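Holo prediction — magnesium ion.
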Amino acid sequence: MNGKTNSTMAHEQQTIVFTREQIACRVEELGKQITAEYAGREKNQSLVLLCVLNGAFIFAADLCRAIDLDVELDFIRVKSYGDATRSSGSIDLVKSAELDVTQKDIILIEDIVDSGHTAAWLTHHFKDAGASSVKLCALIDKTERRETEVAIDYAGFAAEQGFLVGYGLDYAERYRNLPDIVSLEE
Ligand code: IMP
Ligand code: MG
């Protein structure tokens, strides 16, 4: 299902970058990898999956069901100021986690790491909050515009460029419901 698709939406052409089948396959692999790496921990040590709203909501929903472990799940929301397609690096926590994260193992679930500012900020934030460990799982590692070094422990796909939407990712809150991940072209 690669290639161009016609659309009735504002952007005339959307080139499919990752198909729904590729995404499903990769999410299963990430779930197995996380399951294997956390399986041997002490029984009383909780693993908390923190879904970064809004973009990661579909990814987190699929990924948590591919993880065969006892997990807690919570949601956080950050706002990064900038224009529609580029982060300024200034970040506000709009909705914090409701679970107590102290002494817990955390995996942040992000849709895409672009400049790296959001992921770096969140990692520091939860380390400061007293988490035992903070790892980062991002569906897409977009390297072209990286400004802050950030370790992505579990990366779904690498993408070099383009503005990607679908499977939860948006442009001005639109396109989140597309089942494939596509690149917008005007
Ligand atoms: P950062 O630049 O790494 O801080 O990324 C901040 C946020 O910008 C990400 O969590 C996404 O929500 C959004 N973002 C960055 N690149 C894209 C893209 O290609 N498509 C959709 N959202 C993006
Ligand atoms: Mg995001």
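READOUT: The CA atoms of residues 21 and 160 lie 21 Å apart.
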